[in-house]
């Protein structure tokens, strides 16, 4: 394959990577509105599909994350956890305007922005973020 073609393929891949990361102001808003924020590495998961009476599909998933670094509750302070893994649940329907995949890309680690009401849940879109999309100089102003 010619070097020009390789460069073109790299440029397309790099452009897709850049476009998949959301603007910092949207990221900050999501972080500040989340009950729980942590960095995690996916360890295992399970998923299933169900249909309602009208034939609409819902994709249900659960991923177990290995906790990496601090765990924040309500962004007020770092919480102290005994657990080293956390289960996170997600439901996706055709009405959601995003990719049905629970984990975007093929990242090793993710920033998880979850709600907590007896279990950790994330909305269908944009709350499990590849850690490569998090600016290293991100300053929280919640």
Automatic annotation (TrEMBL):
Alphabetical UniProt keywords: Signal
Key word Signal present: yes
Signal peptide from the UniProt entry: 1-20
Record's keyword annotation contains Signal: yes
Top-rank lineage group of the source organism: Eukaryota
The protein, known as: Uncharacterized protein LOC106051410
Species of provenance: Biomphalaria glabrata (Bloodfluke planorb)
Gene, per the UniProt record: LOC106051410
């Amino acid at each position: 394959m010619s070097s020009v073609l390789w460069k073109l393929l790299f440029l397309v891949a790099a452009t897709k990577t850049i476009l998949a990361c959301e603007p910092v102001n949207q990221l900050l808003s999501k972080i500040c509105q989340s009950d729980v924020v942590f960095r995690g590495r996916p360890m295992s998961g399970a998923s299933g599909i169900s249909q309602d009476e009208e034939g609409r599909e819902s994709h249900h998933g659960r991923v177990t994350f290995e906790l990496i670094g601090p765990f924040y509750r309500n962004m007020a302070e770092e919480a102290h956890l005994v657990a080293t893994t956390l289960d996170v649940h997600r439901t996706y329907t055709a009405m959601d305007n995003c990719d049905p995949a629970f984990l975007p890309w093929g990242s090793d680690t993710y920033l998880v922005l979850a709600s907590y009401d007896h279990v950790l849940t994330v909305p269908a879109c944009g709350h499990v973020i590849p850690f490569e999309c998090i600016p290293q100089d991100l300053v929280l102003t919640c």
